[in-house]
Amino acid sequence: MENSIKKSSSGQVLSVLSFILSTIAIISAGLCCVTTFISPIIGIPFGLLAVFLGFVSVISATIGMSQARKSNSSLLISQIGLWVGIIAVAIVVVFILVIFYWMGTQMLR
């Protein structure tokens, strides 16, 4: 018996791109958190890179998921890329808020 459901690889390129970009973004977010205490000149570009790659990852994952849904393809890699990209952006945003809070409490002393 043949399987009548056709599986397609549509959207897989954008899904893999999203996964790769989100992985680089989460590494960059970690480097931002670590290197900002050493030198803000080094840490700030890592944070900007993490936010940019995180947004691009979320956009490509969303497009890849819509293409994969239309062609009855797997959504797993797109979902992983989407969530890791969101987490990378969230790490940088929370880190910036913590730094601003710490700077504010230091100025009040």
Mean pLDDT: 88
* Low-pLDDT segments: none
How much β-strand is present in the residues?
under 5%
Number of domains as seen in the coordinates: 1
Number of β-strand runs: 0
Shape, per Cα inertia axes: elongated
Oligomeric status? single chain
- Sheet having the most strands: none
Question: What is the N-to-C succession of helices and strands?
Answer: HHH
Distance linking N and C termini: 77 Å
Structural class: mainly alpha
- State the helical fraction: over 70%
Cα gyration radius (Å) = 18 Å
By DSSP (H or I, 4+ residues per run), the number of helices equals 3
Keywords: Membrane, Transmembrane, Transmembrane helix
Outline the fold blueprint.
Blueprint: H1 12-35, H2 40-70, H3 76-107
Helix pairs in contact: 1-2, 1-3, 2-3
Give me some keywords for this one:
single chain, 109 residues, mainly alpha, 3 helices, 80% helix, elongated, membrane, transmembrane helix, transmembrane
